[in-house]
């Protein structure tokens, strides 16, 4: 496979990841989600401040960019016989762009929503597993962070189960799983200390 194909895919998916839904929508509201709450550019922090009713576009942006990155990676790599690997590679580059966006001062989100749909785009079975794990944890505890960490672990475990014979897919997905857990290290510490905040994902927010 030409190195140019890999580089073009990596750059396109990375900079696609720089388009963070929470930041884009908060900028439309003449604000910056990173100036409020936890300072994180994620859906949870957006909902806490701006409310769930304004989050539809945030969700749409982060979901669509994840699907688009996996589609692009698949299309670029398929002519060389590596379509599934391309989808995983595109997803990894998208995730890096979402978490560490050069165009946004490297202050991004934590990748849960995008990661979920990256999983669906590569293998619907893993996407379904993530959904079950996240919503089971969140609905029973009201801790989004706990659901997110467990979902990130399920991401890696799911691909380890279904794609253990594909080293490229396994590498990309295990890196994404580990990265998402790492991005939640502060939440994990607060959960251990009993200091983590519960979140109502249907809340009205503070910016009224």
List keywords for this structure.
globular
Describe the structure.
This protein is mainly alpha-helical and 208 residues long. The protein has one domain (3-193). It has helices at residues 3-17, 21-28, 43-50, 56-77, 83-99, 112-122, 124-141, 144-162, 167-183, 185-193. The radius of gyration is 17 Å and the shape is globular. The N and C termini lie far apart (53 Å). The mean pLDDT is 93.
Shape call:
globular
Order of helices and strands: HHHHHHHHHH
Total separate domains: 1
**C-alpha Rg, in Å?**
17 Å
How many DSSP-defined strands? 0
The DSSP helix count reads 10
- Structural class based on helices, strands and sheet pairing: mainly alpha
Sheet of most strands? none
Distance between the termini: 53 Å
> Level of helix content?
55-70%
Low-pLDDT segments: none
Strand content: under 5%
Mean pLDDT: 93
Give a quick summary of the entry.
The chain has 208 residues and is mainly alpha-helical. The chain has helices spanning 3-17, 21-28, 43-50, 56-77, 83-99, 112-122, 124-141, 144-162, 167-183, 185-193.
List the helices and strands and how they pair.
Layout: H1 3-17, H2 21-28, H3 43-50, H4 56-77, H5 83-99, H6 112-122, H7 124-141, H8 144-162, H9 167-183, H10 185-193
């Amino acid at each position: 496979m030409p190195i140019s194909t890999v580089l073009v895919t990596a750059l396109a998916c990375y900079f696609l990841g720089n388009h963070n839904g929470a930041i884009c929508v908060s900028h439309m509201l003449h604000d910056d989600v990173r100036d409020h709450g936890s300072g994180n550019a994620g859906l949870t922090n957006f909902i806490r401040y701006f409310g769930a009713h304004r989050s539809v576009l945030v969700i749409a942006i982060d979901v669509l960019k994840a699907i688009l990155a996996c589609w692009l990676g698949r299309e670029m790599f398929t002519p060389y016989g590596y379509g599934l690997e391309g989808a995983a590679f595109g997803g990894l580059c998208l995730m890096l762009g979402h978490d560490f966006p050069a165009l946004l001062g490297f202050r991004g989100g934590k990748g849960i929503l995008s990661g979920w749909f990256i999983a669906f785009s590569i293998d619907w079975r893993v996407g379904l597993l993530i959904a079950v794990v996240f919503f089971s944890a969140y609905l029973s505890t009201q801790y989004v962070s706990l659901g997110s960490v467990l979902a990130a672990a399920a991401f890696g475990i799911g691909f380890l189960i279904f794609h253990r014979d594909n080293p490229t897919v396994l590498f990309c997905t295990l890196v994404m799983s580990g990265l998402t857990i790492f991005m939640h290290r502060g939440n994990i510490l607060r959960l251990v200390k009993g200091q983590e905040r519960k979140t109502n994902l249907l809340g009205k927010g503070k910016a009224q």
